[in-house]
Amino acid sequence: MFSPGHPRCPGLSMVTMKRLIFCSAILILATGGVHAHPRVHARPHLGANMPAPPTRPHPRSVAPASDTLLIELNRRQFAHGDTVSFACHVPGFLRDSIVGTLHVIIEDLRKNRRWKYRYPIIKGEAAGDLVIKGAIPDGEYAVNFVVQKSFFHLDGKIKDYKPKLNPLSYLVMAKDKEGYMDKAEPGPDGSFRLKSMYFDDTAYIVFSPAKKYQAEYLWIDVRTPLDSAFTAYAAGTRFIRVGAPGADAGGIAADPGSDDLAKRYHFNANRSASGPGVLPDVVVKGRQKKLVDKFNEEYSCGLFKSREFMLFDGLESDLIAHSLNVYEFLKWQVPGFTAKPNNNGGYNLRWRNAGVTIFLDEFPLTHPEDIYINTADIAMIKVYAPPSFISGKNGVIAIYTKRGAYDLNPHQKNRFKVAGYTNAEASWE
Description:
Number of helices: 5
Helix content: 10-25%
Strand order of the largest sheet: 2-14-7-4-5
Distance between the termini: 29 Å
Structural class: mainly beta
Order of helices and strands: HEEEHEEEEEEEEEEEHHEHEEEEEEEE
Shape: globular
Largest sheet: 5 strands, mixed
């Protein structure tokens, strides 16, 4: 337990402990304990904007789930805007130098609703903060802590594998970080494993064969151990209440730590439940929208939702698909944009006197001059003239690939968006 006087953490606050965990993560990655390319940064340390240390938890909140997992929760009663702070200690991981994953799964005890988060376990420790947003209903919740004896990595297999596809190049793009390129060597059956990666939120991974072969030859299936079924190394549950103390909770005991509640609740990790923010479908009657407009509404996020852009349709028009590559298409369509071939087989990109920033599915490309995007896979292109509010003085070209119901004729599968770890400070909404 992380209480004052414990031999492992004498007198450390929860915030101090979190800082130590994340500094340890960076040190382990830097010394090769878990591979990370030097240009992809590990979880940032918590700096000057760190909130005040959370209230020390009630002694009952720190009771160990078992000898293999010790849980600390800052308290049990919360209001909207409060922060749920937790820290977990896995003695066996520290003893055996294991890096693993902590899954935090919150369930509404009255409704079929579930929220999932996950955090790296480094040197036997994992911790995080979840800010409760206003959309979370008042009521009782079970906070489940599940330990997995695996760190993030990605396994893949090439369908109809041919030796000419070896080596396999891949580009990793993580949000708010520089991406990197590397290579994997598939085995005789086309299976491969990428080096271990460490990133927050999500990453976009694009595979490509040797330059003389086209990406349409690639059909890859991938999986990560974090999104697959697994046997828990250890697990524990804590109960919390959101809302005013003593408010009606639908017949559930007023004390979120009551024995009666614990006896009635059973956590099933494989139970299906809706995710955060899932709402019933809404049907709006009116003028029939073009497919590209519907796609734009579904897949454009944040700053990319701005109306100040040129839009090129790759769903109902075949002009993009019939082009040699995306830059050859754009240089004839966008005034002031130039794409001049260079000696390395790529392009030098300019927009009048400004630079150009390229985004693929809203992830910035580290090496945009390299052409590996199959034009037949492009759903739409959005062009923002310089200076752009997205990329300062540069112009912006945002390329979106077909997916979901809009990918009606998939001949290849070589691009994947994968979930990494939850930010140390995240929202529960």
